[in-house]
Design a protein that fits this description.
Elements (H helix, E strand, L loop, with lengths): L9 E3 L5 E3 L13 E9 L8 H9 L3 E7 L6 E9 L3
Antiparallel strand pairs: 1-2, 3-5, 4-5
Length: 87
């Protein structure tokens, strides 16, 4: 049976000195806010996104989160980007 708090227990160090556990203190932080951007390309009219365009979006803080290729239903390719909101 456990009696007492885990923070009040003492543990013996190998050198014979006692160690005391100090509780952690957590502050309530605001949840992170995100913004999203979807870039849709019609491959019948435009070529796919090249490295230059992806690097430009990366410099703006956008992270590529996913790609959806709708070639079975059409010719659209969707690029999904996310970044932390600055507001």
């Amino acid at each position: 049976m456990f009696a007492g708090s885990p923070f009040s227990q003492r543990m013996e160090k190998p050198e014979g000195r006692m160690a005391v556990h100090i509780p952690m203190v957590y502050e309530k932080a605001e949840p992170m806010r995100w913004e999203y951007y979807v870039l849709t390309i019609d491959t019948r009219e435009h070529s796919l996104v090249d490295a230059e365009r992806l690097n430009k979006l990366g410099r703006e803080g956008w992270i590529l989160a996913g790609i959806l290729d709708e070639k079975e239903r059409g010719s659209l390719v969707h690029y999904y980007f996310v970044r932390q909101a600055t507001e």
